[in-house]
């Protein structure tokens, strides 16, 4: 069991990820984060002396780890199951928030206000997701170059499609990309 201080810190990081996925980095303030997370304002500065940028970096890492764990578990059953789990995760994220939330990693990636550490964390998260997919594809028969290309295409497609879903207020774009991504995986692993 985590210590009370660790729980407060985790709650703040998770709260930051949630706010960034809903509002973006620029519209997320430390004061609102404390209120959103139910933590005293002083605790945010205590746990995150680097302020908003440190919180953004850790929120990106938190979101990345959360998705990576889900993806990694599903990929144990193969790349198709990994793809399906990845799509299902984003479907749940966008629909449960009535299309008002997306990916905090993408949100930080496109914001001018993100500092180098937050951008580096986002790049690392995307690379990790790609690497998980690539390794699974390779284990199931895809060649190195093809696995790398499909992994990048998958992450880029899903991230871009999440943005389309938010704009269109519909999960239909996710439904449209699924058969094509599945076909690529089947072809590469046959």
Properties at a glance:
190 residues; Tetracycline Repressor, domain 2; mainly alpha; elongated
Uncertain segments of ≥5 residues (pLDDT<50)?
A: none
General shape: elongated
Beta strand count: 0
Structural class: mainly alpha
Provide the CATH architecture.
Orthogonal Bundle
Whole-number tally of structural domains: 1
Question: What report would you give on this structure?
Answer:
Helices cover 79% and strands 0% of the residues. It is mainly alpha-helical and 190 residues long. The protein has one domain (53-189): Tetracycline Repressor, domain 2, CATH 1.10.357.10. The chain is elongated and about 55 Å long.
In short:
The chain has 190 residues and is mainly α. Helices cover 79% and strands 0% of the residues. The protein has nine helices and no strands.
Record the SSE blueprint.
Layout: H1 4-23, H2 30-37, H3 41-47, H4 51-75, H5 79-96, H6 104-109, H7 116-139, H8 144-168, H9 172-189
């Amino acid at each position: 069991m985590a210590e009370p201080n660790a729980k407060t810190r985790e709650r703040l990081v998770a709260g930051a990820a949630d706010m960034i996925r809903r509002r973006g980095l620029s519209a997320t303030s430390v004061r609102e984060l404390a209120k959103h997370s139910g933590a005293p304002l002083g605790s945010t500065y205590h746990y995150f002396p680097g302020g908003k940028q440190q919180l953004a970096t850790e929120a990106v890492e938190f979101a990345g780890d959360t998705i990576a764990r889900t993806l990694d578990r599903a990929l144990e059953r193969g790349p198709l199951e990994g793809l399906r789990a990845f799509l299902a995760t984003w479907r749940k994220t966008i629909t449960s928030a009535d299309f008002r939330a997306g990916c905090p990693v993408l949100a930080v990636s496109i914001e001018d206000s993100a500092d180098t550490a937050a951008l580096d964390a986002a790049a690392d998260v995307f690379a990790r997701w790609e690497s998980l997919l690539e390794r699974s594809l390779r284990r199931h028969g895809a060649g190195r170059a093809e696995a790398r290309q499909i992994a990048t295409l998958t992450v880029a497609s899903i991230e871009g499609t999440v943005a389309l879903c938010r704009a269109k207020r519909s999960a239909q774009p996710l439904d449209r990309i699924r058969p094509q991504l599945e076909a690529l995986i089947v072809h590469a692993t046959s």
